[in-house]
Specification:
The protein has about 45 residues and is mostly beta strands. The protein has no helices and 2 strands. The chain is elongated. The relative contact order is 0.17.
Length: about 45
């Protein structure tokens, strides 16, 4: 997001922000093994 859209989050509202990087992580692998998988997360909706 860039410009005014970048300032429309709870953390950036009212701050001098020009750009925000936003991502949704589905899987994290560490040392060849799955450390996190969204579908197996108990809090996933």
């Amino acid at each position: 997001m860039q410009g005014s859209s970048a300032r429309q989050t709870t953390r950036t509202e009212g701050r001098p922000v020009d750009a925000v990087i936003f991502a949704i992580v589905d899987t994290v692998e560490q040392n060849g093994k799955t450390a996190f998988k969204k579908s197996e997360d108990a809090n996933a909706k």
